[in-house]
Amino acid sequence: MLLQRHGKERLPTEILLPDDKTRVHPDDRILFAGDIKAKWKINHIITSSEALRYTLTGSHPPTSIFWRWVTRASG
Length: 75
What we know:
Elements lengths: L1 E5 L5 E5 L12 E3 L4 H12 L1 H9 L7 H10 L1
């Protein structure tokens, strides 16, 4: 993964393999490298709110009416 961002002088800065603490800014550009399965997974994460929530938080909240009801009844 390569992260490209513009600094104060509007010159691009490139960060190869940014660490976990690096925050992505709105104008950043990200280059991913991988096979077709990796492309599908990344596409799924950025287009599915449930997958994105799980990726960011590690929790998978119930999405069906039944499981939401069970969760509320037990909690």
